[in-house]
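Lecture 7 notes: from sequence to structure.

We start with a single chain of 512 residues. Read the sequence below before looking at the structure.
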Amino acid sequence: MPIATDSISIVKEFLLGSCRRGPAPPTGRSGYRHSSLKFPQSLCFTRAHFHTAQRYVWLTTNRRSQDISGAHISFMKETTAKAFTSDQSLELIARICSSHELGRAERLKELLHYLAHRALEDEHVQISEFEIGVEVFGRRNFDTSADNIVRVTVSDLRKRIKTYYATEGADELILLDIPRGSYTPVFSRRGTNPASFPDQQSSSTLPEIVESHLDARSLWVSVRQYAAYAMVLLLTASCLYLAYVNRTLREKLYAGKSDRTLDPFWSGILESPRDTDVVVGDTAVAAVEEILGQRISLPEFLDHQFLNQIEKSDFDPNLKGKLAGIAIRDYGSISDFYAALKIRELDPESSRIHLQFARDFPARAIGEHNVVLIGNSRSNPWCTLFENDLNFVVGYDSSANRMLVRNRHPLPGESAEYLTTFEPGNSSDFSTIAFIPNRQHSADVLIIAGTDAVANESAATFLASRDSLQLLREKLHVRTLPYFELLLRTARVTGTPSPAEIVAFRALSGKP
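Now the structure, written as tokens:
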């Protein structure tokens, strides 16, 4: 049945120009009320009337958005996105709080509950940093300029929510986000898009005015659009040129290197069917450990429990905020990265060598990939998975306030402990290398742990040298290196490290 044109006109007028914000209806949802438009008593609106007018409004908004105010656009978005209840939103919050990401983070769960309830109680609320500091953290006389605990904690919460949606919450229909620069959470339905606003089941009969707007769109193609097209073409050409230059430079850089054969020790790792992950340490966590005076276990490291430890400490609130700001940052040692680079340069064209940061390294990769762990257990807690099985272990002597290597089962002529020395113009560091299988004996693990970052780099340099590996084979009296442990000493004269020398070694049972 044809749709009455006067009915469509009135609905269009209602949607486009005759609405204003009114008080919330009894259901508690915000709405719009008609202010001046008079509807004829005899006029009857059908579902098709309203959908046809909606489609007209949508087309007009997309083609000539300058003719419609922000309030009308907000109305249409609200009509589309508000397709779930407050109870469903609260159920989502409960699932997030019970997930692996927030399961043991009580303070983060408390913060999320507070923000969600405030947002659901009043959809126009603007939650401030000061309000959170007082209501959630209980900080009376909260000074936002001196204490950044709110910013740090909300930043951590954002990351965990993002991780939740990438893992356990991948199938969630309702999305939760805390936009940067705001503390007010936003709920939305997955896949909500203004382009999907028109009802696909609306009447097949559209007024001729729709066609006229479609035809008129070509008249509104502005100079800015042509400029945008030109910019895209220019950027594409630039990217292609840079790709060509990059390829040419790589060919020159690695000319002759691609023909270089790997030492048999490294070919067994880097040329195996498995990928190889090179994991560098997290110096921010090592600094937090030293300041707090307590070790951070691997589970606490992975769950960011060290933030709770900072909050529970007796430090001044201002210091807590600054320490938490350090803890959430991704800090690494330049020497660790140099050590990783030496390994990467052994096979520079390989696509199966991946650089990983200890805080972002997935646990499943330990059982699936060959793994190179760089750093001792203080900066790289992944090393603690294997420390109980090792003979040479990097530790700390609190009485001497120095790093050391403990020799759990010293042989004749060996010491039980090897302390680092610091003398003017002359000092020595120690590093350990352990080449062992993983727990499942499905892949190999190479641990490079030094008393400091320079010792890590020195050990990596040793492993990257064919001559050093051949020397190790001679000491072990083997042609093919088995699993082994190695203790190295590096002397530093006026700050310059000398090549590492072998102090002690152990050949382990089993073959790679």
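DSSP finds 18 helices and 16 strands in the chain. Keep this in mind for problem set 3.
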